[in-house]
From TrEMBL:
Biased composition, class Low complexity, residue ranges: 95-109
Organism: Aquipuribacter hungaricus
TM region positions: 42-60, 66-85
Keyword Zinc-finger tagged: no
Keywords: Membrane, Transmembrane, Transmembrane helix
Protein name: DUF3040 domain-containing protein
Keyword Membrane part of the UniProt annotation: yes
């Protein structure tokens, strides 16, 4: 059953709010795109595994250990290539709708948890307490 126009607009607003609030999480939820890129990655991986396996078998049959090692490396590389995620996509721009002039929350200072803990430790060591 297709979504109504109102439901589609509501869904678009929710997606925009998610991208505005936490773009990294939103990108994680969308996952990687399926399509030509993933098919070509799979084909390259299968081909490299097949070539690697062939090199291993040929290397063993003619008694050349170095050829078998190269085949293993090629095969292992194909498996890693198939399993590894492609480079991360950029988060699309989400223009605000509805003409609201309200901006998002003010960006927080770039202090990580570890940095805050180090500052507390230094203050405590200096006798400043928490």
């Amino acid at each position: 059953m297709p979504l109504s126009d109102h439901e589609q607009k509501l869904l678009a607003q929710m997606e925009q709010a998610l991208y505005a609030e936490d773009p990294k999480f939103a990108t994680t939820l969308t996952g990687r795109q399926r399509g030509v890129g993933s098919v070509s990655r799979a084909l390259v991986a299968v081909a490299s595994v097949a070539v690697g396996l062939t090199l291993i078998i040929v290397g063993i049959s003619i008694g050349q250990l170095w050829l078998s090692v190269i085949g293993f490396v090629v095969m292992f590389g194909g498996v890693v290539f198939a399993v590894a995620a492609p480079p991360a996509r950029t988060v699309p721009d989400t223009p605000s709708r509805g003409g609201s002039s309200r901006s998002g929350p003010a960006p927080r200072a770039k202090s990580s948890f570890v940095q805050r803990m180090e500052e507390r430790w230094e203050r405590r060591a200096d006798g400043g307490g928490l």
